[in-house]
Amino acid sequence: MKKRVFLILGVFVALLASFGSMHAQRAKEYFNFEERGEAYFSFKMPEKKVLAELAQIMSVDKVNAETGTVIAYANEEEFEAFLRYGMKPTILTPPSMERVVEMMDYRPGAKNDWNTYPTYEGYVSMMNEFQANYPSLCTTSSVGKSVKNRELLVCRLTSSVNAGKKPKVFFTSTMHGDETTGYVVMLRLIDYLLSNYETDPRVKNILDKTEVWISPLTNPDGTYRMGNNSVNGATRYNANNIDLNRNFKDDVHGDHPDGKPWQPETQAYMDFQSQHNFVLGMNVHGGAEVVNYPWDNKKER
Question: How far apart are the C-alpha atoms of 167 and 297, rounded to whole Å?
Fold first, then answer.
């Protein structure tokens, strides 16, 4: 009897293993995850309950009710989970690979060209030059490093007026590495506040009464996935193929809402924010016009 039970258990375990291997094989048949790390794909819109479940598994980007399609990002593990729902995906070309964008190899003293993207080294130069050109208004520092050892930079903008008595606000951008519009917008915001302090009363009032902290690029490994010289081919996820937007603490789902370990970028920004009493924070994304407020994942008012 015992032998029969063990035999049945052995067959059951083998079936489970083969089931998992089948989906892993199917995932690789759809997409080369070793080359890019994340797939960008569409599928037919399922019923609302299933879509809500899928949104907890992977990164849903767009839902088009008119065409009845959903577009999402997924790493290999997430893609395998998606396939278990029995839906057929269509692999798409990610937006960051649809066209070649113009890059600028920024050098100290060069004129900013806001119609281009800086190389990674150019970005570091720009952030450091903000402090060099406006030492009384700007301090540039690093809150930590990414998986690939790139700096996570932040500029602190404020005047010497009312020192130590000002509310602090914190702006970040490009947590999704391929959402690069906010990256340049935040760089330009730093430049605008610094260069207009002496001439614009509104800007002067802001920096006299507030500490403005800005981190334009919170996922440099995703943005410069193909190398430091271009943002072409940028990925949504970080170098470990993790969606940083789902990797932070959540007031509903707890410390690890995505079931993944905290990433170096996540830990660095959580540590940094714990050191400052920010009264306002904003994280800039791209792709749609929408504003999410804190606690918007709760039904209670």
Answer: 27
